Amino acid sequence: MSIYTYETKKDTRSGFGAGMEFLSLTNPKVVALCADLIGSLKLEPFIKNCPERFFQTGIAEANMIGIAAGLSIGGYIPFATTFANFGTGRVYDQIRQSVAYSGKNVKIACSHAGLTLGEDGATHQILEDIGLMKMLPGMVVINPCDYNQTKAATIAVANYNGPVYLRFGRPVVPVFTPEDQEFVIGKAIKLIEGSDVSIFATGHLVWESILAADILKENGVHAEVINIHTIKPLDTQAILDSVKKTKCLVSAEEHQINGGLGDSIAQYLATSMPFPQEFVGVNDSFGESGKPADLMDKYGLNAASIVEKALKAISRK
Amino acid sequence: MQTQELISIASQVRRDILRMVHGCQSGHPGGSLGCTDLLVSLYFDAMNLKLNATNDQVVFNMSGLNEDVFFLSNGHISPVLYSVLARRGYFPINELSTFRKINSRLQGHPTPHEHLEGIRIASGSLGQGLSVAIGVAQAKKLNDDSSIVYCLMGDGEQNEGQVWEAAMYAPHHKADNLIAFIDVNGQQIDGPTEKIMNNRDLQLKYEAFGWKVLHVDGHDMAGLQSCLANAKQMLGNDIPVMILMKTEMGAGVDFMMGSHKWHGVAPNDQQLEEALSQLSETLGDY
Questions:
Q1: Fewest 10 Å CB contacts: which of A16, A116, A238, B281?
Q2: pTM to 2 decimals?
């Protein structure tokens, strides 16, 4: 049996909404912007509590990023919100020039990242956003794993001065992290101690990694599971400490392999301490319509894939 | 400030622009010369800037709280902004000689990345400045700050879709502490705007979006002063103000006027000499 259990499943975007509700009452400098997706971003409580600090931009994401940059100049902490595809790829140049290069304290907070928004299909399923955002100098990139962690991350990024990309999703997933766990940007969290293989996961793939570790354990393999909620800055010490012990690793993410978390880890280890690495992620393809669980199975973003890749990594030691 | 004094400063700013682009043999003199009179009238007359109480020198604060702020959206005319900022006292005038050179704070296009006093946002990739200016205007309202936000765009820049997202947003959100300008010089890189992408009637367009639209001759200093005074009077009524400013690229230098040839071309030694001979050195060259 796993050391991790859960009582409820919730969507990470609701964790964001809860974090924003908390900030509406506790931080008068926090403002929110949304491009016609209030319900999807769970912003109703924030708007109810402080309507004067909410800015509806309509379906105009480029303008939203610029308005957010302007509000940050005036001393506010803007959260620019929409779907991950429209909040990153669609407005890359606006984020690059008006936010990142200008060093603005703007939080780009996006729901519906990855495949798990499901039926809307590839036009709405961005799998490149981590890569796009982590390439921008100075940009912090965070992908929390459950409701509690997303709420904590939302509150934490408001207290951090600088541009942040906060990525979360639509499906309900197990709520297993402690409600009161402090979120420290850039500090990985070891979930399961192990000695045979390291599994570094982010976002929705963290729970799948716990399930994978359980399966591996039944087969006598002791996997270490580490939640890399912050892709940038990467907790390289946590990664190094783990792979020194296990001598092989798997990265797992709901994102393209190219440009994602695994890519960051590989780049780091290649120049410090290389070990056999396997990648769980989408392999250079777009998504498609379907139920989230079916999509995750089809694209190999589940516990079974992590188990398979873990065994492969071990065999390459 | 007296109109004549402003005209005198503008002459020096035009000399600075020419010498800056000549010094690095790159940059955009045409639009810079065209917008010189506006920027001088703003920074030396119309704008209420934060001053040090003891010596009356300008003080730069990123937030721009309780002072008027200006955003240059068409960042390629950085020479005029840099010259005006330096002449107004934001940073040493001698620093103008570093424009576009290695290790300079005066990048080809303005950026706060190099911590240059007076610059609050990067611009260069077109179409973004109006959005930023509106955001600052809204922050001022949240802060109960009654000062004004100014923003200058190019007429070629009106091709960018984001401009129209911002144009729609500002009146909807009652950004009535905002005065924007379009530098209507009728030129863009590939030729006359009429041929490249016709803006047609900008007054009709902005009025349809809910703006109050004014017109001004961008080279009539007294006219600029009265237009800005008039525009300020119109603020506070839920409606942002757009000023369509007719200018001539290369204004002040006869052989640079009347075409888009000098959009992004630096003068050679002889051309510089000829151009400078048409402009009095009123404040001393850097």
A1: B281
A2: 0.97
